[in-house]
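MODEL INPUT / OUTPUT PAIR
PAIR INDEX: 1
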Amino acid sequence: LREACAGTYRGALATRDDAAEIMAAAGALERLTTSETIEWDALDGKWRLAYTNAADVLGLLMASQRLGVPEVGDIFQSFGCANGTNTGITNEIRLSVPFLLSEAKVGAPGGVGLRVQASFKDVGRRRIALTFQEAQVSEISISPLAETLLAPAILPRSSLNHQVLMFIKELELKFPLRGALTSMGGGEAGAAVGTYHLTFCDEDMLIGRAAAGGIYIFTRA
């Protein structure tokens, strides 16, 4: 499965034959999963996206590949569930805009980090129910060109200039996410987004399938 995912740009460049090979390999691994309970200690940690056929993620990756805007770096999913804990899930993507932000590459923390925090609860049969709680923008890394232009052109080189550059780099914005029930004054805080089926997990690889459609294949980060 790992070899089949390689070179597909996380699914955006996958041919029909590539997709068929990946789905066959994923299905073979999923059939090895006999337990209907999730091994939480194995799931805990940070995972890097290797492949997906989910339309929303593929649209972003295809735009990046064809147009170069935005540049897409790493896409992560992190679970906090070791030793019986449940600190939620973090979905993270690194994005960049050429000339304004530093380049976003897989394995390099450039551009800007966009994160969505979610809570989850076990609903049985290897499924978890997700509720998105908060979106966050942080870890802004401006490009050397933008920093060079900002320094002499807008502000003289001084302590004030340094303060402005540090403010940009340390800027962090958070936005609470609310669903229909919350906005009407009822239901759980956050935006419920359905269930997520964790069909395979070991120390190296994770396969998840969203209720709305789409497979997500991750490798351990």
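PAIR INDEX: 2
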Amino acid sequence: MARVFVYGTLKKGQPNYQYMINTAKGLAKFQGRGRTVEKYPLVIAGKYNIPYMLNIPGTGHHVAGEIYSVDDQMLQFLDEFEGCPDMYQRTLMRIEVMEWEGKGSAGERRADAEGIVECFVYSTMTYPPEWVGLPYHDSYDSSGKHGLAYVLRESR
């Protein structure tokens, strides 16, 4: 199992969350909520209003999201879903645990005690330069006050 941190449309209550709970795609177990240890720019960009975390450490905000434990099948699905490695790149990032659900295994207890876990995150280094000038967000909600509702793939 691998840890994945999601900050956009795959979070609970967001447009693509159904993929995280679709066991035909693999297993994803919610572990808790967290935020990036380093600051990153989280922007909403493109004609489909897609959230992107730009891989520019030290710029932007501590980005909030959810931590999942996923199996190899789900990780492979997420790679394809996120257009990895062209649109997004899957990298390891340090995530500060804000709220922890599972306390089952020793690894989970150790992470909870330290307060920091390493998770795979889909961020991007392949973006148009003008995206750096977009507003930065600390968390994402498709129906947020930004007014940039995400356009579902089936509606494109």
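PAIR 2 NOTE: The first strand starts at residue 2 and ends at 6.
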